[in-house]
Amino acid sequence: MAMIATVTLREPWDVDRQLSEMGLSRPTLLEVRDVALSAAANATDFHPLNAAGTFSYQEGTWAMRDRHVKVGGEWEIDRSYGVEAIKNGGRQLKLVFANVDIACNDSQWPKPRSRKGAGGERAFAGNLFGDDLPYFAPEQADGYAAYYLMVGDSGAAELTRPIVKAGTFAGYVQRIYLSDGTDMSIDRLSDDGNAPVGDFDPLVVRK
Questions:
Q1: Nearest CA-CA partner of 104 in 10, 198, 18
Q2: Rounded Cα–Cα distance for residues 67 and 58 (Å)
Q3: What is the pLDDT of residues 169-178, one digit of tens each?
Q4: pTM of the model
Q5: Distances (CA, A) of 165 to 12, 84, 104
């Protein structure tokens, strides 16, 4: 099996160059983040506790598709393995939205705020490693490189190609830092005991 080195891109020029090669742009991806976090901010104490995460996931996925899927364009809707995504057949890329606990932190991997299913493991080459971060990771078996647009409550966001194992992110192939969150001013939900929590991405399971 072909192997590729893991890497983290932090510098703006490296990030923008890599995104351009992928047919993506940082401003557009950050628009998706802004839509998702604006939706999360609509949750109130009268909503279910997982409403903020649900709103963020739904609107983030919508915005990701709205900004990228165009008639005659490169990107299209994809639901392989029960994972809501977009894909680019020409560039062999897939992109999924996810709420995470933290992003753009060198000392901590982002963790999903909801458990990922078996479909996510198949889509993101799971069950390949132990608990340690692999320095080398295998190329995607189906030919697609699959990335998550990971958005944290602070507004930090990264585009990351993870290894999904046991319902979470067990490592990564590539991390592309988009923003540490200081570029936005959306009011944050309070973190007291009565505030809604944002720990939910709906799990789609094939019947």
A1: 10
A2: 14
A3: 878 889 999 9
A4: 0.77
A5: 30, 18, 21
Contact 163, 124 (CB under 8 A): yes
Q: Report the C-alpha gap between 199 and 190 in whole angstroms.
A: 15
Residue 190's contacts (CB-CB under 8 Å, 6 or more residues apart) are none
CB-count exposure of residue 136 (10 Å: 0-12, 13-18, 19+): exposed
Domain boundaries, the chain: 3-179
Please provide residue 44's backbone torsions phi and psi, each rounded to the nearest 5 degrees.
-125, 175
Distance of CA 127 to the CA centre of its chain: 19
Residue recorded with tokens 């933290």: 102
How far apart, in whole angstroms, are the C-alpha atoms of residue 85 and residue 97?
7
User: pLDDT tens-digit profile of 61-112?
Assistant: 999 999 999 988 999 999 988 899 999 999 999 999 999 999 999 888 788 7
d(CA 85, CA 99): 14
